[in-house]
Structure formats: C-alpha cells, structure tokens
Amino acid sequence: MSWDDKKGAVTSPSPTPIAGDSPHHFDVIYSEDTLDGRYLAKARILNDAVQDIGMGKYQWGLFCVTGFGWFADNLWPYLRPTFIDPPVFLVQIVTGLIIPPTVNEFNFDPPWLKLGQNIGLLIGAAFWGVGADIWGRKISFNITMLIIAVFAISAGGSPNFVALTSLASVWSVGVGGNLPVDSAIFLEFVPASHQYLLTILSIWWAFGQLVGSLVAWPFIANYSCDTATPGTNCPRSSNMGWRYFLFTMGGLMFVFWALRFFVFKLYESPKYLMGKGQDEKAVEVVRKLAEHNGRTTSLTLEDLQAVDSAYAQKSDLVQTDPEKNEGHVNAAIRRQLTKFDSNHVKSLFASRKLAYSSTLLIILWAGYMVELPILGRRGTLSISTILTGVFILVSTTARTSDALLGWNCAYSFTSNVMYGVLYAITPELFPTKDRGTGNAITATANRIFGIMAPIIALFADLTSSVPIFISGAIFLIAGVIALLLPFESRGKASL
Asked: Is 50 or 371 the better-scoring residue by pLDDT?
C-alpha cells in the first residue's frame, strides 16, 4: 500500500490471493470534504489491510463475545413491564418477568423500578460510549458485563423495593454501555465485505429473550407467592422465584464476562490507535490479527508514514486545519492534554453534511427512539419503522386476545428488523475516532425518552388508547426521517 502523491489517493497493490478469497477495494462513506484527508487516507489503508486478511476465526470469535452485549441488552431491559392495568403490550415486548412477584412482596408502584433502570441505562450509554473514545475500547468492553453480573446477583438479595431499584439502576449502567461499545469494536475489526454481520448480530437479542423466558418460567411459576393484595401474605420464603431468576441470569453474565476477559483476547482497534496518532501500534494490531487468522499482511508502518509525508509536502500549498488532522502527532498530544473536552462531539458536526447525518440519527433514536441493493440500509430502516408504527396503530382494532397476539407478533418482527438495522447503520455512519461518542449520543437520546415513559405512567391516565396513537405516530415520522439520511453505508467500508 502506498500514497499516490500525484493522485492524492491511497493505492493498494494486489496481494497474493488466498484460497477462497477475492480481495476487493471498497469505497468509503465519506470524502475529504467531510473528514480530514490525512485520517481518511490512513483509514483506507487500514481498511484494505483488514480486507486483505479477510474474515477469520478472530472475527468469528468477536461475533460471539460482542453478541453477548446484544444478549444482555435485550435480556435486562426485557425485565421491564407494561404499566397499564390491564396490561397493554405496546410499552414493552412482554408484560414483565420480575414485576408481578416483586410488587406482591414489596408493594410498590412499578414505574419507579423502570425509572431507576432507565436512569442507569442513560448513564451507561453516555459514560461508556464517550469513554471508549477517550481511554479505548478494551476497558469499556471488559468492565460492562462484570457490572451487570455483580449487581444483578446482589439485586437478588434485595430486602426492599428501594434496594432493588438502586441495584437495578447500577446493573443498567453496565447494560447501557454494551451496544455503543460492542458495535464499534465489531465494526472496526470486520472486513468491509462482511459489515452486514453487524445487522446479523441482532440474532443475539432473540437468544436473550428466549433464554430469559425459559429460565424465568420454572422459577417464577413455581416459587412465587399467590396473593390478591400486594404486600400481604407474601413473605420472602414463599416468593424466591424472582430471586433465583436474578441469581441465575447474573451468574450467566459472570460466565460471559469470564469468556470475554480470560478466554478471548481483544486487541485495541487499529483505527482508534491511528486516530490517536499511534500508527506503530495500529500496524502491530493488524499484524496480530493476521497471525491470529493464519494469514499474512503486507501492511507496514511506512505505509501510514507516507501519508504524513505527503501531507507535509503539501502543507505549504494547502492550509490545513490542525484540529481536524487527528492522525497527526501534535494533534494526538493536544488530545491527551484535553481528553475531556468537546472535540469528539464537535467532530460529529464538522461539516454540514456530517452534522445533518448525525442530527437525523439522534432524531431516529429519540423516536423510540439490509443488504438488498434496491433498499439498502436507509430503505430497510424506513420500511421496517413505518410498518412498526402501522402495526401499533391497527392493534387498537383488536377485540380478542388472539387478535392482539397477532398484532404483537407483527410488531415484534418489524421492530426487531428496525433495531437490527438501526444498530448497524449508526456506528457505520460515524468515523472510528468519534464512533464511541456518536453511539453514546444517539443511545442517550433513546434513554432520555425511556426515562420519560415511566414518569408519564406515574402521573398520566394510561387506560385510554392515546399513548398507543402517539407511539404509532412517532414511528411513522421516524420512518420518513430515515429516508432523509444523507449517507448510504451498504457496500461501503466504514471509517
């Protein structure tokens, strides 16, 4: 790989083909009018190196350990209930797993538990996502699952409602940080030809929901008190089912954490290192990746240094903005001295088109917030979001439990497609150096509205269909907004 000074672009010599592989150069989402040219050139070199190595056992292992994050993201918020009596299916996927027995034992208003949990999710998304851009991906990746495990098990021993809500808030700090970090890690190691797997990772959501249901079923069904009046005739000794459930699920999180920490060796993202001015370490990681997959790479430190040399030669002719040259050593030093400033946020809005894209992503996530050539990411996201809204609205016509179940199934299918694409396109449209922060901002927008839901449930009349109409309308609007995204990431390498 080399820097072509005449063309001002990165060129990559054709590597020796590997059996079964067909190396290709993939276009990228951004151009030099959107991102700093030096960073863009180096990112292309690293993308080509990873593409030449191909999809191997390291990435498949990463598919599993990052999948644990999707598993946890659906499992723990999955414990949240609906708050309408009788229950209405639209607030959550299910009516709740631990709410009925805990209400019977502690006699509390269910929205308070959801509020505490959503506050934790908000803090986790913001803290771990932004932190991944400051101290790297590895620390956040290795800690979040441990937090869930420790405090979920502790919650199983809660003596009262206040303790349960407090511990649920803390375990949710770990849950909230999973997807903003895990999606970034997976995307930064997978070859461009296999970026579609970021959408396929959503299969772990289904596993989380399935395992949670299967484990909760025998525990809660057989070890819960039977009382018509919450807070009476329901001692701890006759209501251990929900505690056994939390002990079991917390233990499973410990297993996931152990597999991440002791079994799978996570390398720091090469593009993250490059964005910090640590080109030598970035090359070292790519070489380790190739070795782990039983391949070789032609990438050298000189390939990245050639980009710096080319820009140094052009510096007298072209005035560059030092704040945007993230790969430059001086910029790296400046970032180390101002780690907690707003540079990562500003970078997400550095140009008009990038600001437009970032703003629409935030709106899409606040509205509750793929590989088909005709549809792409935007088309698939739009259609699935609009259909989700439609199924929510027509569910108000249901007059029997069977009809409601049918709309439930349709809503669940389209919303899972929607979230699968949304969790893929969001990290794809953010550059690596700011991806953690971008993921954090969009996820935080989602969590803010998640906090609003139980507050409304505490003080509003939810026995009418008005909340359903509002929810459906929001999905319809979000579906239209998805079409306005200025970038299409299908078939293009992320940066």
From this structure: 50
pLDDT surpassing 90 at residue 27: no
Residue 86: asked if its preceding bond is cis (omega within 30°), the reply is yes
- What are the two backbone dihedrals, phi and then psi, of residue 3, each rounded to the nearest 5 degrees? -100, 120
**pLDDT band (50, 70, 90) for residue 334:** very low
Which range, of 161-170, 182-191, 318-327, 447-456, averages the lowest pLDDT?
318-327
Closest C-alpha among 298, 300, 324 to residue 311 = 324
Residue appearing with tokens 């849950």? 175
Its sign, for the CA torsion 45, 51, 53, 57, is positive
Cα–Cα dist 278/328, whole Å = 9
Instruction: For the chain, give the number of residues.
Output: 495
What is residue 324's DSSP assignment? Answer: T
pLDDT, one tens digit per residue, over 127-143 is 998 888 888 888 889 99
Show the tokens assigned to 133: 């851009």
Tokens, residue 220: 């809660």
- Return the closest-CA partner of residue 272 out of 52, 31, 437: 437
- Distant-in-sequence, close-in-space partners of 210: CB < 8 Å, separation ≥ 6: none
> Do the beta carbons of residue 372 and residue 458 sit within 8 Å?
no
pLDDT (mean) for 122-128 = 89
- Give, in order, the Cα–Cα distances in Å from 13 to each of 49, 116, 270, 283: 11, 55, 20, 17
**229 DSSP assignment:** S
> What is the C-alpha separation between 345 and 79, in angstroms, rounded?
32
CA distance 183 to 166: 28
